[in-house]
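Honest question from a wet-lab person: if I give you the sequences of every part of a complex, can you actually get the arrangement of the whole thing, not just the pieces? Trying it with mine:
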Amino acid sequence: MSTAKKRISMVLGVALLSGALAPFLPNYYAGLLSEVLIFAVFAMSLDLLVGFMGLPSLGHAAYFGMGSYTAGLIALNYTHNIWVCAAAGTLAALVTALLFGLLVLRTGGASFLMITLALSQILWGIAFKWRSFTGGEDGLSGIARTSMGIPWDLTPVHGFLWLAIIFFAVMGALIALYHISPFGLALQGIRESETRMRSLGYNVWLYKYIGHAVAAMVAGVSGVMFLFYNSFVSPNYLSTGFSAKALLMVILGGSGTLLGPVFGSLVIVALENVVSFFTERWMMIIGATYVLVVLFFPKGVLGSLGKLTGRRQG
Amino acid sequence: MNFWAMQTMNSLSLGILLFLIASGFSLIFGLMRIANLAHGSFYLLGAYVGLAVLNKTESWPLAVLAASVGVPVAGILLQRLFLNRLHNQELPQVLLTFGFMFIFADLALYLWGGTPQTLPKPEMFSSSVRFMGLVFPAYRLFVIGVGLFIAVGLWLFLEKTKVGAMVRAGVDDSEMARAVGINVPLIFTGVFALGVALAALAGVLGGPIIGVFPGLDLEILLLALVVVVIGGIGSIKGAFVGSLLVGILDNFGKALFPEIAFFTIFAPMALVLALRPKGLFGK
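Yes, you can. This is the full assembly:
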């Protein structure tokens, strides 16, 4: 089986599994599964920066949030057409990335981390304070799910879950192909050695700029999906805390792997929801998980398993 | 007229507080290449510890002492027990401090609750001072005074003492410093403790002005990062200039355009990143 087929089948495997489970899940768990799948795509988009390009970002929520908020504002003020909102949201994320890309791509490592943290937190601050436009702390709410060309009703939990599964399958497959595309392979080459790539004639900065924009677009789209899942968005989804959750999903699952972020999403969503039943101290648990993963599982769970699940290419 | 004078005073006192925080952050990063994302947490802990001591004893000197000595203990434990295991691994170290930021934040929430609180001002400085027909709160003048005193002291320490020279040697080239016989691990711990102490002290000093509440750690961290981006990482001079600039921008921004205040911090940061990515005085 060619690598492309193998990778796509891994993604489709997860989608099929979700699809098989879906009819049997009670509403609460069906909702959680939607969340897992949407965040899985978000985490995969973050890994496009972290594992794939070697750029550790603590500001990816900026693009997710821009997608969500833009889609929400369009839905509340202009049209409920899910496709228009999605396009607007993705475009907003792209534009933000094109702007931020000019500022952040001159650095790497810890500096990149700090700057992305600051930029996304500033967006959070703007959303938080600009009550008249963004709803401030209360965010945007009451966003309906209109079907618009999708042949089933999206309003019930299971209805939306089917959309989420299809979303995951499509985005996952695209990302799987992106990883092994010539452009993707060039990006990995840049991660390994910029000087070498430059001497081979690649316009390194341009590749990074585009790669960064692609990662942001996928994040934006997942933000739009999340808006319609949640019917609500708040500044929290622009914040460092949310970026951090996504980064933890990536690291826990294994950065640089195809399904690592998906696994990470499953674990973190489960952890958050289960832990909240027993204790209010889930923030400490997330922090402790971070510490433990960084100290003892730096390659992540799937990264350590390596061969089985689509290891880092090249 | 009084509005502008007041706002300038507020900007300066905020700027000096930011300097205490940012200089600690810069030192730690400059020397150990650790971006200590828990730095804001140490500010928060300092404020809470100060509050707790003040509530029990009403003694300001004791509160300052408890914060400046107690909180660094947590810092030293973090550095020796955890960060040292990830020696020279830049990214994992940063993520580790980030994990601890969550832990400290939740710990503070558990111990002191979620309601915003303010520290009471010391008796001596709780009144106002009249000068040239304008009225200034004495406490802010006190903060500016203490901050400048510490800034000068820090400069003297780094530039004029033997230990300071060792620190600077470590910043410039830690391998050479080790080769020359400087006990670099000890200096590392010492500087880390110093940086944390500065942040905790800032927490106590800032308590009566900014207050203390969950989420403050991230707010402070953000401002410190902006200062460091603008001023340049690893430079104390940059931290000083950056702090005053951010203090002025943040304060006037909030006073004049409260709804889009964050833009006033964002714009200069973006400008610096675009034109001088290493910061104004960066190495």
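Two things worth pointing out. The longest strand of chain A covers residues 140-141. The radius of gyration of chain A is 19 Å.
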